[in-house]
Structures are given as C-alpha cells and as structure tokens.
Amino acid sequence: MAINTIDRTAKQIVLTLQEYSLFASRAFLNLFRPPIYWTDFLMQSDIIGVGSVPIVILSGFFTGGVLALQSAATLSEFGATAVTGQFVSLTMIRELGAVLTGIMVAGRNASSMASELGSMVVTEQIDAMRALGVDPMRKLVTPRIFASIAMLLLLTIVSDAFGIVGGAAVTVFLNHQNATQYFHMAYERLHYPDIIQGLVKPLFFGYILGSIGCFYGMRTTGGTEGVGRATISAVVNSSVLIIAVDFLITHVLLSIFPT
C-alpha cells in the first residue's frame, strides 16, 4: 500500500514537471515571436513593478539595517568595524537583494497571477478566448512573464540601493560611525563581477515566479477551492524554486568569477 502511494506520488511529480517544462518553454519562445501584446505587458509591468515598490523598499531597507547591526557586532571583536559598508554592499548586491526581492514579489504577484488566471479558467473565460481565436498563452501568460523578468531586475536594483542606505542609517545613527567611511568602503570594494552576479539572478527569478504563477493558474480545476489550492501552490513552489535556482546560479557564477 505504501509502495503504491509512493509510486503515484512520484508519477504525479514527474508529470507535473513535464507539464511545467513544456508550458515554460512555450511561454519563453513566445517572448521572441509576434504577436506580442505590448499593452498587456505595460499593464502587468505597472501591477508587478510599481505595485511592489513599497514592500521592496521596506524589505531592502530593514535587511540592510540588520546586516549592519549583525556585522558591526561581530567585526567589533576584531577591530574591523570600518568594513561594515563593504559587508553590507557585497551581501545585498551579490545575494540578498535578488533573493529577497524574488521571494517578496513571488508572494505578492505569483499568487495574484494564479488566482486571476484560475478564476478565468473556472468561469470558462479561457475557453471563450480560444473560441474567439485568441491564444491565451500569448495574451495572458507571455506578457506576465515578460513583465516579471523586466520588473524584477529593476526592483532588485531598488532593493540593493535601499539596503545600502538602511545599513548606512544603522551605521551612522546607532553604531555612531562615519558615513563617508561607510559609503567609501561600500563603493571601493565593489567590482563589476559582483554587480553582474546580482543582476543575472533576477532574470531567472522573474521567469520562475511568472511562469509558475501562470502555470498553476492555467491548470486550475475544482472551482473556487481549486483557485485557492493553485494560489498556495504557486507561492510555495516559486519561492522554493527561487532559492534552489539561486544556489545553482551562485555556484556557476562563482566558478566564472572567482573571488
């Protein structure tokens, strides 16, 4: 009995991965083939990008502040509190800025994509679009993925900037250190490979959260309860996959740009 349960679960996981791979590859190819619905892209960019700015700013600012507090407490034992700016800037730009932004935006927008598309599926609006000769993948899915990629890149830059500012605020007002020294160390130790690592990751994370949110939305079944399940699955799986892919990307980039 247990073996049969494991067998069914394994088959279900494999089938889901297969469906998602086909769905994601088709959506990716649609990014480069007309028609592209630019109006929908701009609308989704506003929803995903502009709507996520407040939470990205707050999360980035306080994350930078926490990094400054923790690093200063540790570095003070070695008399090296002057490198707090270096620690905060490198950590935010190379790692935490992209990952935190991806998870925050996934929680906000992957869920909304899944619920919105799921509601359209259960109310048969998707079938109506197909009857009218409109491809739902091009009209609904591709603009959302395209907007997620573009906006997550910009939001990561915002998160990095406010993370460094948050670290500066803590360093100056709580740790009573020199602001000029903080920003000098933050800038002096920052190199182009660090920036490249921080800007490559959001491209993958945006594609992940957009494709998974749309995937679970488009395969919704079971009425309103199914919409709820799709929303939960989209948030959980996109967040976990972002963290897993971050590990793989970091490993590859560190082999290309060794420290």
UniProtKB/TrEMBL annotation:
Compartment(s) of residence: Membrane
Mode of membrane association: Multi-pass membrane protein
Gene Ontology CC terms: ATP-binding cassette (ABC) transporter complex
GO molecular function, one term: phospholipid transporter activity
Keyword Protein biosynthesis in record: no
Alphabetic keyword roster: Membrane, Transmembrane, Transmembrane helix, Transport
Sequence intervals crossing the membrane: 47-69, 145-175, 195-218, 230-257
One Pfam family matching this protein: MlaE
Domain of life: Bacteria
Segment forming the signal sequence: none
Membrane as UniProt keyword: yes
InterPro entries per record: ABC_MlaE_roteobac, Permease_MalE
Record-stated family: Belongs to the MlaE permease family.
Protein name in UniProt: Putative Transporter, ER-chloroplast lipid translocase (ECLT) family
Source organism: Candidatus Sulfuritelmatomonas gaucii
